[in-house]
Specification:
Number of helices: 13
Distance between the termini: 61 Å
Strand content: 5-15%
Structural class: alpha/beta
Largest sheet: 8 strands, mixed
CATH class of the largest domain: Alpha Beta
Number of strands: 14
Radius of gyration: 21 Å
Oligomer: single chain
Helix content: 40-55%
Order of helices and strands: HEHEHEHEHHEHEEHEEEHEEHEEHHH
CATH topology of the largest domain: Rossmann fold
CATH architecture of the largest domain: 3-Layer(aba) Sandwich
Number of domains: 2
Length: 390
């Protein structure tokens, strides 16, 4: 059965052609059993990962699927396709923002939700470097709203879709995802025996909305050049199917309080992907279509890490690590400090709170690099620095 609605339009090749390795295939039998007859909530449902997850989940005969997204047209189209493909599945699509606490509370109160797949997020690194307010509001405060509701309404499992950019973050986006990870770890320790919180980390998902593959495909159709940031820039790559498999396997196989990833082999240079796409399109790189280097953008690294804490695994194998044995008792304060920073309207204050909470967060190619000097000697969260009652 086809379980992915994802397409890679107007290209003479599939994302799998660009991996440089065999696709990872995981056994999802346990995932099917985990989802069957359950009420499932998927946030960011109209995005690339959300769409793939929705199709997989519907294929496993859930009792009900609740799809949440702000993107009206994309959600409408997803709803239409899923209803055609799975006419017997109870599908409830909701145009809503995860940052609307009252709206989210109503969703949780109206249905006994068993599993939450939380994929809603702002993800574009250079763009979020310009918009820390929106990144913090959605990626952190939106996650807080959902996670707190999950605990209050005794949701069995909460699976958070994170990113390799949360590991030693160099960007606002990566830092917001890391802060959200830390908050989930805090809840896991604060309320043991209730909701099982599980974090999954991805590399770059090939062909996802707004990804460099989509841009390269458009540039090839226009005759080039293909714009690459740096000749040595490299990323861990995975397909939408691999990403969905990881999330579903984590949901079925984890008992909570774990960070999951999958070994994807070696990172791949983006310049090599660009040249391969040119050749697959029937052209010669450097002759028919040029590759032009434009420089790393704000918040970007040359390379990323998937799970710095986990032990190495063989290609295709799952890697997981337990949450730390202690949680930062100041996370609630951190949320309050972030809200005050948002209210101030000062981007520097917002980013400064993130840097205080995440000592390993060092900005790259960003105006916020100047804030690192102020924090470089601090190793722990120091709430006194962010008092807002004076």
């Amino acid at each position: 059965m086809q379980t992915s609605l994802h397409t890679f339009p107007h290209c003479p090749f599939k994302p799998e052609d660009l991996l440089g390795r065999a696709p990872v295939v995981l056994d999802l039998q346990n995932a099917a059993e985990e989802i069957r007859d359950r009420h499932i909530l998927i946030t960011g449902a109209a995005g690339t990962i959300g769409t793939g997850l929705a199709a997989h989940v519907c294929a496993y005969a859930p009792a009900k699927v609740i799809l949440v997204d702000q993107a009206e047209t994309a959600l409408f189209e997803l709803d239409h396709r899923l209803r055609e493909q799975f006419p017997l599945t109870d599908i409830c699509s909701q145009v809503a923002s995860i940052t609307d606490a009252l709206r989210m509370a109503r969703l949780f109160s109206q249905t006994r939700i068993h599993i939450v797949f939380h994929a809603a997020a702002y993800k574009h690194v250079p763009f979020m470097e310009l918009h820390p307010y929106e990144a913090i509001k959605t990626n952190i405060l939106g996650t807080e709203i959902l996670a707190d509701l999950a605990v209050s309404y005794r949701v069995s499992k909460f699976i958070y879709i994170s990113t390799d950019k949360a590991v030693r973050p160099a960007s606002v986006m990566g830092a917001t995802k890391r802060f959200a990870e830390l908050y989930l770890q805090y809840l896991s320790h604060e309320y043991p025996g209730k909701t099982q919180f599980i974090i999954t980390r991805f590399g770059n998902v090939l062909g996802s909305n707004g990804s460099f593959l989509i841009r390269f495909a458009e540039q090839i159709r226009e005759g080039g050049p293909l714009t690459v940031t740096h000749p040595l820039a490299e990323r861990y790559l995975m397909t939408v199917t691999e990403a969905c498999q990881l999330v579903l396997q984590a949901a079925a196989g984890s008992g909570g309080a774990e960070i999951w990833s999958v070994d994807m082999g070696e990172p791949v240079r983006i310049a090599d992907i660009a040249r391969k796409m040119i050749r697959l399109a029937g052209f010669e790189p450097g002759k028919d279509i040029q590759v032009r280097f434009t420089g790393l953008r704000p918040g970007e690294k040359l390379t990323e890490e998937i799970n710095g804490e986990a032990t190495p695994a063989a290609f295709g194998q799952l890697r997981k690590v337990r949450f730390p044995s202690h949680a930062d008792s100041c996370m609630r304060y951190g949320m309050s400090a972030l809200q005050k920073a948002l209210d101030s309207g000062s981007a520097e204050q917002m980013v400064s709170v993130l840097k205080m909470a995440i000592p390993e967060y060092h900005s790259a190619h960003s105006p916020y690099e100047k804030l690192d000097q102020a924090h470089m000697r601090r190793e722990h969260w120091q709430p006194v620095e962010f008092r807002t009652d004076t």
